[in-house]
Amino acid sequence: MDSQRIKDDDEAVRAALTSLKTATGIPVTMYATLLPDNRLQITQWVGLRTPALQNIIIEPGSGVGGRVVTTRRPVGVSDYTRANIISHENDRAIQDEGLHSIVAVPVIVNREIRGVLYVGVHSPVRLGDKVIEEVTMTARTLEQDLAVNSALRRVEGGKPGAAKSGRVMNGAEWEQVRSTHSKLRMLANRVEDELLRKELEQLCDQMVSPVRVKQSTKLSARELDVLSCVALGHTNVEAAEEMGIGAETVKSYLRSVMRKLGAHTRYEAVNAARRIGALP
């Protein structure tokens, strides 16, 4: 299982590096895996001219990668050896490779940093916002691929037939999920308010690791009626008119449903109900 896990994840990383180089034209793309002791190790690369950076270990907080792990945000420098926002323990390796400008972006799965995605150039040019956006988009896609690999392994490791419990999304639907996840992640990276950023990150997490709901949860017919109205976009007043009950009664049903499903909003409750098969 472990060898297959490593193989699947390595293939996803390799595809991301190749795709990124093709999309940007940047000569060097690299991926550093976050080790258990919080160090980074560059484990995959495309376009390196020398072995100076191959399999190099990066100490916690060191250089561009260390800053990315510390801040959980993209970091870019246009002149590595002179940049004052990073430490310089790795200057010798960078100089031996001849890299000048570097952009690095965190790869986060289920709120845990799995690694860092890098691009770099050997000439003294500034990597602009479009390149940073492309690296960020690629990192978000890689996050989704790694999360899917993890989810599939959980299913395969569970009871026989577990994979048959839900409908498999088609390609177009899955691409829409990926696109939305990517846009949310990029939006979170631009938000300065820490609490709001965490909320956005939690939404991203839920797209690949939904809140677990006990299968034994039972909703009454009236509770399902209210949820069905909410799923159609009805307000409490409109739902009350549709069902022939008072708006306060609708609120009471909704509070009960959210408590049972562990949801914080009416729309979370609808999604949770769909996940346990209570709604289509």
UniProtKB/TrEMBL annotation:
Keyword Transcription: yes
One matching Pfam family: GerE
Chain ranges of the HTH luxR-type domain: 212-277
PROSITE patterns associated with the record: HTH_LUXR_2
Presence of keyword Calcium: no
InterPro entries documented for this protein: GAF, GAF-like_dom_sf, HTH-type_RamA-like, Sig_transdc_resp-reg_C-effctor, Tscrpt_reg_LuxR_C, WH-like_DNA-bd_sf
Keywords in alphabetical order: DNA-binding, Transcription, Transcription regulation
Record-given protein name: Acetate metabolism transcriptional regulator RamA
Gene from which this protein is expressed: ramA
